[in-house]
Amino acid sequence: MNTMNITDFKSHALKVLRDTAELGKTVIITKRGKALAEIIPYKPHDRKAVPGRLASTLVSEKDIVSPIDEEWEANK
Q: What is the pTM (predicted TM-score) of this model?
């Protein structure tokens, strides 16, 4: 994993992005010694979005429409 100052990144951004894409290099961009961003290679997702995939993961134990124990101003 390489680190690069933000000023150098500005000057060489296209080369850094090309190296990241082609060679799989990861680069951390720093400013005054503090990490600002990490440039990583793009990896497409293997899974396709399937409607309803998360439908069975939602669990509701109580009525979510009725107000809580407190009286609401809108209920009056």
A: 0.56
